[in-house]
Amino acid sequence: MNIVECLNLKKTYKQGKLEVPALNDINLSVQKGEFTAVAGPSGSGKTTLLNIIGGLDSSDEGSTIIDGHNLNKMTHSQLADLRLNKIGFIFQAYNLIPVLSALENIEFVMLLQGVGKAERHERSLSILNDVGLGDKYNRRPAELSGGQQQRVAVARAIVSNPSIVLADEPTANLDSKTGNSLLELMKKINEENSVTFIFSTHDHMVMDYANRLINITDGVVVKDQVKQ
Amino acid sequence: MHFQLAWRNIWRNTKRTIIIMLAIIVGVWSMICLGSLLRGIINQMIQNGIATLTGHIQVHIKGYHNDPVVENNITDPEKISANLKTLLPADSRFCSRVRVNAVANNAEHTLSVTMVGIDPSHEAKVSFIGDAVKTGRYLKSNDKYGIIVGKAFAKKFETKLGRKVVLMSQNVNQKMISKAFKIIGIYTAEMSATEEQFVFINKRTAQEMLGLINGISEISIVLTQNENFHKIAEKIKKNLPEEYEVHTWKELLPIVTAYLTIYDGFIIMWYVVVFIAMAFGIINTTLMAILERVREFGLLKALGMKPRWIVKSVLYESFFIVIIGLFIGNIIGLFSVLVLSVTGIDFSAFAAGSEFMGISRVIYPDIAFKDIITANMLVFILGILVNLYPAYKAAKFQPVEALAHT
After folding, report:
1. Is residue A26 part of a domain?
2. Is A122 among the domain residues?
């Protein structure tokens, strides 16, 4: 079953008077449970693609369907709901809320979903333990290392039971050992819970972990390979 | 957790939060302080006016108010007094007076004064004069030729206790009459203008001097509760014959009444001006705080937070800052008023100017609960409202651009 379908996507950015094509007629689909890397050099359009899939940006042409929902026909409010309930995000810069503890950062998404306090607390603690940070539940982001912060970000991304997790260069700010350990974690989550992961990356370590590799150059898919 | 997040967010930059709070604290403090000082001035003006012979209500013969001459006198005061006893609340007091313009002179000086003929025992319960004699003694009912003058009068006349003062006036037959009196007491009043203007003699003496048999100029009534004077005045009007007129202090002290009307408008204007000054500081500083957190707002939107929740979140932060500022501002304001209510503010340096307006030499503040409520409500409501703009700005950040912000 296709969890993501992108049909004839086109996106152009204006830089002053100049028009820069970011995506040029992208067609791809991602099935549930995939661990897919979208790779390409800087400026290839991989982040733009992820932003459109995540409903953070809209395409100029074409359509994007996430878990049966056509994003082009959704209002801003509906897109916000989709992101809240169906999509998890992991960012290169972690993007944790600095005044909340690790536990509270994870709880925050469920708070927005309207989950009760006791359940929020229980699920957050459980996932924090799963990512190996159970003893650091009350630490604020400034008190955690880069790798630990990214683990919290992973926990936040999956705690709401999303259909897809979009990770934009999640290992870019991490050393190789920490990055490797993070990828192990995400792979484990993917295999145990069938959560679909889509990465944008130019890190070969990420590409090695992926079971499907989509190469993008200048906004065009040049290679789409499922690994055996 | 929204409140928790808001609370923690306001302390991310302690200095900036304190600056916003200081603006609110100073604003609220000035509203309470100035408001209470102005109210103190107004209340003192009213109290001075009422105590300085006006009373809450006065009864005269019709025409006296427009032409306060000795011919316009109440010829049957006993009947009116009997009537008033049934109409007035039990705890109110009244007295009758003879009041005419006169000229006081001695060997060296002449001064235009108001000669007031009083019933000493009744007058003491109604006006200020009962407790005001600081040198010598108060009038007794059998003091035929004794006179009480004000301290400023005595200074101007370069006179003292035991000396002679001659009063000259016009009687009911429009003949000039004069009589000599001996100064038996010197009084002090809130305003030196009062001390110069009013001289007090026995009512019986005044009546004989002016050719009034039993006639009096006015009956002055003092109530224990200022708020009811309108209703009581109306009641008296309805129950007295038409040949009498009844006036409240508001009609008898038009300048004070005018100040009262101006006061309410002035205080609102002051509040608005203070608030506008505060608002610029609040909006500017809040905007700075918002712009520093562009990425964070982008993240919140990416996570699925809706714009109205972001607005609420920013308003929660404003709520905490405003509440804390209000709390401290109120404490400092009330404490300042407490201190000033003991020390007062000495206006002696501006005595001539302030007395012209009916203001005492030393001003004491007067707190009205409604003034505090108005100041707090204004700051609270507008303080939250002005933060709608920064909140709206935060809610409008587009996630993609915001997340790319450095």
Report:
1. yes
2. no
A74 CB within 8 Å of a chain B CB: no
Q: Using CA atoms, how far apart are residues B63 and B361, in angstroms rounded to an integer? A: 35
Which tens digits make up the pLDDT trace of A179-197? 888 899 899 989 988 899 9
* Band (B357; pLDDT cuts 50, 70, 90): low
pLDDT at residue B356 tops 60 = no
List, for residues B86-119, the tens digit of each pLDDT value.
888 888 899 999 999 999 998 889 999 999 999 9
Report the percentage of chain B scoring pLDDT > 90.
47
Domain range for A39 is: 2-97+164-226
**Chain B residues close to A83, C-beta within 8 Å:** 302-304
Size of interface A-B (CB pairs under 8 A): 58
Measured between beta carbons, the chain A residues lying within 8 angstroms of B5 are: 97, 99-100, 108
With an 8 Å Cβ cutoff, are A95 and B301 in contact?
Answer: no
CA dihedral sign, ordered B251, B257, B258, B261: negative
Q: Any idea where the domains of chain B sit in the sequence?
A: 2-49+256-404, 57-222
The tokens describing A63, both together, are 């359509």
Count of alpha carbons within 13 angstroms of residue B167, beta-carbon side: 29
Q: How confident is the model at residue B352 (pLDDT cuts 50, 70, 90)?
A: low
Name residues whose C-beta falls within 8 Å of residue B216's C-beta, 6 or more positions apart in sequence: B73, B74, B77, B96, B97, B98, B203, B207
HSE on the CB side for B51, CA within 13 Å? 18
Per-residue confidence (pLDDT) for residue B29, from 0 to 100: 93
Which residue type occupies B291?
L
The whole-angstrom separation of Cα A143 and Cα A149 is 9
Task: For B103, list phi and psi in degrees, rounded to 5.
Answer: -120, 130
Average pLDDT over residues A96-112: 94
Q: Phi and psi at residue A55, in whole multiples of 5°?
A: 75, 10
CB atoms within 10 A of CB B298: 22
How many structural domains is chain A composed of? 1
Q: Is A127 part of any domain?
A: no
Q: Which of B297, B303, B316, B396 would you mutate first to test chain A, the one with the most A CBs within 10 A?
A: B303
Q: Where are the alpha helices (DSSP H) in B165-240?
A: 192-197, 203-210, 229-239
> Residue B262: what pLDDT?
84
Burial class of residue A56, CB neighbours in 10 A (0-12, 13-18, 19+): buried
Enter the DSSP assignment of B216.
Answer: B
Whether A104 is in a domain gets the answer no
Q: Is the pLDDT of residue A39 over 70?
A: yes
Between chains, do B307 and A76 touch, taking CB under 8 Å as contact? Answer: yes
CATH number at residue A221: 3.40.50.300
Beta strands A61-66 and A69-70: pairing type? antiparallel
CB contact under 8 A, A97 and B296: yes
Mean of pLDDT values over B295-319: 91
- Kindly report the nearest CA distance between residue B25 and chain A, in angstroms: 26
Is the interface score ipTM higher than 0.85? Answer: yes
Enter the tokens of residue B161. Answer: 């206790």
